[in-house]
Structure formats: C-alpha cells, structure tokens
Write a structure and sequence with these properties.
Radius of gyration: 29 Å
Distance between the termini: 87 Å
Helix content: 40-55%
Strand content: 5-15%
Structural class: mainly alpha
Shape: elongated
Order of helices and strands: HHEEHHHHHHHHHHHHEHEEHEEHHH
Number of helices: 19
Length: 453
C-alpha cells in the first residue's frame, strides 16, 4: 500500500507539473502571438464616409454621398434599442469583462463538432475591436488578438462608453453607418420616435446587412425582427403582451427611391470593388483615406434610375414578388461603368462581370436584323427544335418551344432557336459590324453562338 501511494503521489506531481508547464506555455504563446496588439483609442472613433474617403467621377470631380456624420450620445439612445442589441448580440454584456467564457465554451464545442472556426462567440467588445483594429481573417492568432484587445477595452472604458462607440460605428449595409442614420434611412425617424418593433428590426440587420435589410429584403428582415423580439422577451426586456404587439406591427419602411441619393448605389458598388482589389474590408477601406477614381456620370446615372423606376419593370411572379434588379451602363470604348443602380436584394454588388447571356439577343441579333429590314416585331417565326450550319443545334430553356409565333413573342420568351435562326439569316458578319459600332469586341472565332451570349 505504501509503495502504491508513492506511485500515485509521483503520478499526481507529474500531472500537476505538466499542467503548470502547459498553462505557462499557453500564456507565453498568448503573449507572443498578441505582442503587437495594442488598443488605439483614435481607431475607436466612428468614421464618416464624407470625411475619411473621397470618390471622384469621370471628370475627377469629388462626389458626395448622402451619408453625413450622425453621432449620437449614449444618453440619447433609447433604452429599448440598447436592449435589442444586447439581447441579440451579447446578452451578458453588462456582466462580463470583455469576453464571455460561457459563450466561448459553447462556440468551441460547436466548432469542434463541425471541424471549423464557424462560431466566434464574439461579445460586443470583441466585435468593436475587430471592426476597428483587425481584419476579417478567421484564424486563432487573430482571435487571440481580439481577446486581448477586448479585455483592454473593457478595462479602459465604461460599459456605456463602449456601447456608445459600438452603436455609432455599426454598418447596416447600403452605406449606412450608426443607429441614428439607420433609423432615419430605414424608417425616416429620429431615434426617440422608434417603436420596439423598429428597434428590433434595426438590431437584427447587423448580422447580415444585405440579407436582413428592411430596404432590400423585407421578408427576411421581418423574420429576423421577430427573433430579436423573442430574445428581448426571454431576457425580460419585454412582456408577453408587448412582444406580441411588436411582432404584429407592420414595418413601414421609407420609400428607398425618395430617401437615397442618386449616387448611393454606385458609391456602394465602387467601395465594394475597391475593397476587393486592395484586400480590405469595406470598413477598413473607409478609414484608409483612399481616393477612388471612377467613371461615374451623374446625368447617365439619373437616366438609368428613371428608366428602371418608371413602373415598366415592376413585374411580379405568382407569389406577388417583384424581381431584384441590377442595372449598369458601361462605356464599351474603355469599359468604364458610368451608371449603376440596384433595386432589391443583390448579394454581390459586383456580380455583373460575367457573360451577357440572353441580354445580348436584342443587341446583336434583333436590332441589326430590324435595321436591315429583314424582320419586324410582327414577323412570323417557327420556334421548333432544329439544326443550323455546322450541325449547331441550340435548345430552348427546359426544351419549351412555341411553334409558329412572332419575333416579339420569341424575344419575350427568350427563344434560343429563333435568335440563332434570325442571326443565321442576317449573317454573323453583319452582327459583328453592328457590334463594332457599339464598341463590343468580338473575335473571328465567334459564330452563331454569339446569339446566346
């Protein structure tokens, strides 16, 4: 027994020393990895798109966006709005010291199960220092720096001060920064006039500014708002009656076309593209002091917006949903984008750099055929499966064919067969000549397939 107790004692001492060495190694590694991470108070100041970055039009003239400075003090932020953010983003905010161990353990468990770094368990402190001091890289090193900075932030600032900075610097998509701007642009209201329902909707946007924007994606925004209200109820911020009333409230969103400036869509897309080129986040770009030169033409921008906002494009599907649309006007001579407008929810603002597809049919097929007086909108055409020169045999979408129809109907239904038939009669050479006039570059290898983009 004495010998066994001696062995157990040695095992215990060895285990204890191993734990101490492991802990010491961990601490040493933490300080080594985070040695350059220092809290910089100047980087915590909310930025203003007008003061920190300048965009220029095609004449190298600075163009202002609508977004002015709209800083608001903590005491002027409604209690219900603060509680909405705490409920959905960091429910133990007032009880932790910058990091939330319980949340970290839960996220770690899920990350191990999914073999990824999917869940970050970020507190409001961590979100603030990440957005102001770090990049969006998902790595253990960046996470450790984030933890160090969050702990430092919590030591140096009061909770109310942290919330004030955080709520004034949040990004809500569409170039909107800070809760005051969000309230004005989403609902045309001052913060003090917001209802609990509107506060919850604003708080719900931050996780996915495009996906949960009440301007761009009202259905998802409504669902997210209801989730935030439920979380507020769970934290005791709202009663059952208040929650039910807020969840049944209709969100009356500001008319986007009236509220935003002509330049807004173009500016957001330009910032998004510039950030990608420079390998920065949009937030990092906005604090960089960069000057961005574009091909923007205000007159063409207004013409583009007017053309897509006159009601002609307000088609709806069987569910009553209007299509999301992205419109551009480019100079084919130099490739510069003169005008750009988004109406609806587009996940990637620079998703227009791709093959033209069926958009090319009216431009390279029907327009030159009309000019050559070979066809008119009323000309009869036979929309059936067939082969053309060289064995080229295109198919219509889902193999749907109209049979005898008109050019107008074929254009409306985007018939591939009719487009190729018209081009064959016109001649590829004539189409290329027309393309040259439009400064569209085609090659000798382009044949009948250009009818389909």
């Amino acid at each position: 027994m004495k010998k066994q107790r001696g062995i157990l004692k040695k095992i215990f001492i060895a285990a204890f020393l191993s734990a101490v060495i492991l802990a010491a190694s961990g601490v040493a590694a933490f300080f080594f990895v985070t040695r350059g991470a220092t809290l910089d108070p100047s980087r915590l100041s909310p930025y203003d798109i007008n003061h920190n970055i300048v965009l220029y039009d095609q004449n190298d003239t600075a163009v202002k966006t609508r977004h002015d400075s709209s800083y608001v003090r903590f005491e002027d932020i409604p209690d219900v709005l603060v509680r909405a953010f705490i409920a959905v983003e960091d429910k133990r905010f007032f009880r932790h010291n910058g990091i939330d161990p319980l949340r970290i353990l839960g996220a770690l468990k899920n990350d191990i199960a999914s073999h990824s770094l999917k869940e970050g368990a970020s507190t409001i402190d961590q979100q603030l220092v990440k957005n102001s001091h770090l990049n969006a890289e998902k790595s253990i090193a960046r996470k450790l720096k984030e933890v160090k900075l969050a702990l430092s932030l919590d030591r140096k600032y009061k909770k109310e001060e942290i919330l004030e900075i955080y709520l004034n610097s949040l990004y809500f998509g569409n170039g909107i920064y800070g809760v005051k701007s969000a309230a004005r642009i989403f609902f045309d209201k001052e913060l003090s006039a917001l209802s609990p329902s509107e506060c919850a909707a604003i708080a719900g946007v931050v996780k996915n500014p495009s996906g949960y924007s009440p301007l761009k994606n009202p259905k998802s925004s409504l669902s997210r708002r209801n989730l935030v209200l439920s979380l507020m109820r769970a934290e005791g911020y709202l009663s059952d009656e208040q929650t039910a009333a807020a969840q049944s409230e209709i969100l009356r969103v500001t008319d986007k076309k009236q509220e935003e400036t002509v330049f807004s869509s173009y500016a957001e897309a330009a910032l998004d593209e510039a950030a990608g080129i420079l390998h920065l986040s949009v937030k990092e770009l906005l604090t960089s002091g960069c000057k961005i030169y574009t091909y923007y033409d205000e007159e063409k921008q207004r013409l583009l917006i007017d053309s897509v906002s006159d009601g002609s494009f307000n088609l709806k599907n069987e569910n009553g949903k209007a299509p999301d649309a992205m419109s551009i006007l480019a100079d084919n001579h130099d490739g510069g984008i003169n005008a750009f407008y988004v109406n609806g929810y587009i996940d990637n603002l620079n998703d227009f750099r791709r093959q033209p597809g069926s958009v090319i049919k009216p431009i390279l097929v029907y327009a030159p055929a009309f000019r050559a007086r070979l066809y008119s909108p009323a000309s009869p055409v036979n929309d059936v499966k067939k082969s053309f020169g060289g064995g080229y045999s295109p198919s219509n979408f889902k193999d749907r064919y109209e049979g005898w129809t008109t050019v107008k109907s074929a254009v409306k239904n985007s018939s591939n067969v009719v487009a190729v038939e018209v081009l064959e009669r016109l001649g590829v050479l004539k189409a290329k000549e027309f393309a040259d006039e439009l400064k569209l570059a085609l090659t000798e290898e382009d044949k009948l397939n250009i009818a389909l983009g």
